[in-house]
Amino acid sequence: MMLSKKTKYALKALHYLAEQPGDQPVLIADLARAENIPKKFLEFILLSLRKGGILQSRVGKGGGYSLAQPANRITIGAVINILEGNIAPVQCLDTTNQAHCEECLDEKTCGIRLVMTDVNIALSQVLNNLTLTDMVERAEAARNKQQNIVDFSI
Amino acid sequence: MMLSKKTKYALKALHYLAEQPGDQPVLIADLARAENIPKKFLEFILLSLRKGGILQSRVGKGGGYSLAQPANRITIGAVINILEGNIAPVQCLDTTNQAHCEECLDEKTCGIRLVMTDVNIALSQVLNNLTLTDMVERAEAARNKQQNIVDFSI
DNA sequence: ATCATATCTATTAAAAATATAGATATGACA
DNA sequence: TGTCATATCTATATTTTTAATAGATATGAT
Fold first, then answer.
1. Which end of chain A is flanked by fewer CB atoms within 10 Å, N or C?
2. pTM of the model
3. Is the CB atom of residue B59 positioned under 7 angstroms from any atom of strand D?
């Protein structure tokens, strides 16, 4: 149930973009350097996110990538969906792609599917309600907390 | 967030074992045939489950595998934990193995970690409360339902 | 026209998941 | 005690997926 490196890179990049004042566009190269992500791999990730409607881009001087929607409208679930193809713990629960588990003889009576339905619901619940804003705010809060502790100890 | 084939095989095998009357031991070969799982791969899976305390085995004539605990005490979460190593969506949340995300500079302020904590809690909640019994019962209920529909149509 | 940028196509490399083979240990039973 | 049926172990091969790289092209600003 582990997030892929690709998805983590995506979340890091989005985090960075969400923190840009005035949604100023950022160059792939800068983003790659700032978040320590292989540039060519990041290119591909950003392109996916753009095609998924989460990012927008501009070519040429002054160009770069920026969020295509307000950060509080971009859910973590949407990001995972774009990069991993779906969120479901088993293919037969991936409704958006109408996928099926090859080895399964009868989906309707499959015990695995019947229990994983609960997992799927719980996951959707959480992931579709967490947004980039949550991520940014929580990180900031954590930094502040850490900062305060340091300040007091001086 | 997809279950591996290995874990699915494990759940299928456990399902089959849970349905044995009187917890009668089942041969690897029979289990492999019944659930259509590559035998050698299944051997490895069953061994893991035994080492994890979920199954017990006996060598020699009349031997085989059976559940080491009542089916309603074996959680789906425990099974996944044994086969995938953990349940957490990111390594740094895998407390049992005290793992960390290599690329992460500061875990405490990592936004990904902070949002994935919610996911982790939700997953644990569900997976540690679903048992083999749930799986078996739901499958049976689904079969009955299907059966009834057929009966009526005759 | 030039330069800075994203975009596309193709390929390679590395890692993980899945599957197989063969030898060995264990226990039941005659 | 010997034989057979079984799980167990060690090693390796195969396949699939993930991650990373390279080079050519399209686009837009100035």
1. C
2. 0.95
3. yes
